[in-house]
Design brief:
Helix content: 55-70%
Number of helices: 15
Oligomer: single chain
Largest sheet: 2 strands, antiparallel
Radius of gyration: 22 Å
Shape: globular
Length: 335
């Protein structure tokens, strides 16, 4: 049975969004693309390393402020500003993670939350740099002259052009994350997730690997924050508040931690549900929470995990009724 390249199909569908000519569709698609990278970065900690972070928004906010300050105040081009956003977030992740990885379980989670609140307090109070409570409004769009010169892309609005740029950047980040989790480094992370004591016993430096995962996750969260600040046309202290950290956590659990694409699926479901529910009722938090609880019960392994299992069963086909039961073997027979 021929396997469908779903990753390529979804990417091509994403490229087609601006051709629909709807500002709303482009807005929602931009939100999904950027926030999905935020959720995927958290999944490197939560799903692959077994670390629950309640303060991942700190690196999202650091990336957003870094990119906005460079583009708005220093007139630095878009790509260097975005790279600086990731590097700055990664540097703070290295600093905070140095202390966090010395703790485990709930103590680790609470320390990440404490560091995130420190970042939020600095963003909220440092008026001369961050703008304080007012934040940094009117973050400019990057220069899209190169895209405007293209025969077809030149007819798009600036928002559509930025969406295509963000889609390509996020796709490259997804490819990098895929290479990381499929590498020997990623395999060691899963070993640490399953049994850190055994990993330590066989000679793995557990803290060093956890710290490396923490830095990589912070880097990609910073990239996501830099893109979101431009998309939002402003950066505000709420980007680093503890409630912002709950969003990628919910998206990851909703989509499925056991699947690489689970957080992206969860991000799409979360944002679409949020858009639909807020347009129908003013009691959207209650309705949204109820819907999420129902979805988590219906899809206990996450949406992506459940769909993956269902497709695997369909490919395998029905099991014959007279098929002999397989007996466990201690040693595989020779070929």
């Amino acid at each position: 049975m021929t396997r469908i390249p779903w990753t390529l199909v979804v990417f091509i569908a994403g490229l087609a969004v601006p051709f629909l000519g709807s500002r709303f569709y482009t807005f929602v698609a931009s939100d999904i693309v950027i926030v999905s990278l935020f959720a995927m970065s958290l999944n490197l900690l939560l799903g692959y390393t077994g670390l629950v972070s309640f303060g991942h928004a700190a690196y999202f906010g650091i990336g957003a402020y870094t990119c906005a300050l460079l583009m708005k105040s220093a007139n630095v081009p878009f790509l260097p500003s975005l790279l600086a956003a990731g590097l700055m977030a990664g540097a703070f992740a290295l600093l905070f993670g140095f202390f966090c990885v010395r703790l485990t379980r709930i103590y680790f989670a609470m320390l990440t939350l404490a560091f995130a609140q420190i970042v939020w307090a600095i963003c909220f109070k440092w008026n001369d740099v961050t703008g304080g409570e007012q934040g940094l409004p009117n973050v400019p769009y990057p220069d899209m002259a190169w895209m405007s010169a293209a025969p077809i892309l030149g007819n798009f609005r600036v928002g559509d052009q930025f969406y295509l740029s963000a889609l390509i950047i996020v796709a490259l980040c997804f490819a990098a994350l895929r290479r990381i989790v499929d590498s020997p480094f990623g395999r060691v992370l899963t070993v640490i997730r399953d049994n850190p004591e055994r990993a330590q016993f066989i000679g793995v430096n557990v803290r060093a690997y956890q710290l490396a995962a923490f830095v990589v996750a912070g880097f990609f969260a910073g990239i996501s924050g830099g893109l979101f600040g431009i998309f939002n046309r402003g950066v505000f202290p709420d980007f680093a508040f503890w409630t912002k950290s709950a969003e990628p956590l919910i998206m990851t659990i909703l989509g499925g931690m056991g699947s690489f694409w689970g957080p992206a699926v969860g991000a799409a479901a979360f944002i679409v549900l949020n858009q639909q529910i807020t347009s129908f009722t003013e009691y959207w938090p209650l309705t949204m929470g109820t819907v999420l609880i129902v979805l988590l019960f219906v899809f206990p392994g996450g949406i992506a995990g459940t769909l993956t299992g269902l497709l695997a069963r369909l490919r395998a086909g029905p099991k014959p009724a007279n098929a002999p039961a397989s007996t466990p073997q201690m040693v595989k027979p020779n070929a």
